[in-house]
């Protein structure tokens, strides 16, 4: 829309701008620039506040989506803030609050992106536990001085004096074996 400084009749002024024109003593209507400058400044301030709210919503959406994906794929809770920071470099949130990859040749979804990061960002992932985890062998402790295979009278005496409770437990273990 073209804004003119002067209109001959009030009907010629666009409806949205009528409040910014005043009658001219010489006839017609003239633009009140000071009034318009205040209005534009107010609109700029409102637009800036709106843009900040939109950015907050976009950040919240990205963070929520990353946390959901981390839960699905087993990323450690302590590492999720790092994952969110890295995801900000790989994704953006569009006008409809949908995650969009920044790179056309990169993974299209957050789950796919996290899966590709698994090898290079190993500390992000939980250590598997439960079924399917190879059994760990307990570290062998010191030899039992009461057992037949490792009988040691000197060590037995030292244990009986220094740690009688441990000596009794080791003696009982040796009798059961």
Model description:
There is one protein chain. Among the domains are: 54-124, no CATH class; 143-177, no CATH class. The protein is built from 5 helices and 5 strands. Strands 1-3-2 form a 3-stranded antiparallel sheet, with no helix packed on it. Strands 4-5 form a two-stranded antiparallel sheet. The radius of gyration is 38 Å and the shape is rod-shaped. The protein has helices at 33-73, 80-90, 110-117, 153-162, 164-176; strands at 6-7, 21-23, 29-31, 91-93, 99-101. The longest helix has 41 residues, at 33-73. The protein is mainly α.
Radius of gyration, in Å, reads: 38 Å
Name the overall outline.
rod-shaped
Largest sheet: 3 strands, antiparallel
Number of strands: 5
First CA to last CA: what distance? 97 Å
Region (Disordered): 125-149
Biased composition (Pro residues): 135-145
Based on the model shown, name its key terms.
two-stranded antiparallel sheet; 177 residues
Question: Short summary of the structure?
Answer:
The protein has 177 residues and is mostly helical. The chain is built from five helices and five strands. It is rod-shaped.
Please write out the topology:
Layout: E1 6-7, E2 21-23, E3 29-31, H1 33-73, H2 80-90, E4 91-93, E5 99-101, H3 110-117, H4 153-162, H5 164-176
Antiparallel strand pairs: 1-3, 2-3, 4-5
Helix pairs in contact: 1-2, 1-3, 4-5
Biased composition (Pro residues): 135-145
Region (Disordered): 125-149
């Amino acid at each position: 829309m073209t804004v003119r400084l002067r209109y001959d009749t009030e009907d010629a002024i666009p409806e949205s701008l009528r409040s910014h024109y005043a009658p001219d003593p010489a006839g017609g209507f003239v633009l009140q620039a000071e009034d318009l400058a205040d209005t534009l400044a107010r609109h700029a301030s409102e637009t800036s506040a709106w843009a900040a709210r939109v950015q907050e919503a976009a950040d919240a959406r990205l963070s929520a989506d990353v946390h959901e994906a981390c839960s699905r794929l087993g990323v450690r809770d302590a590492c999720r803030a790092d994952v969110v920071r890295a995801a900000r470099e790989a994704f953006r949130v569009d006008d409809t609050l949908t995650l969009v990859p920044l790179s056309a040749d990169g993974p299209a979804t957050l789950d796919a992106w996290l899966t590709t990061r698994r090898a290079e960002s190993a500390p992000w992932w939980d250590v598997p536990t439960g079924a399917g985890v190879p059994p760990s062998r307990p570290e062998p402790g010191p030899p039992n001085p009461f057992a037949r295979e490792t009988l040691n009278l000197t060590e037995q005496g030292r244990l009986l004096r220094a740690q009688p409770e441990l000596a009794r437990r080791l003696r009982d273990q040796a009798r059961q074996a």
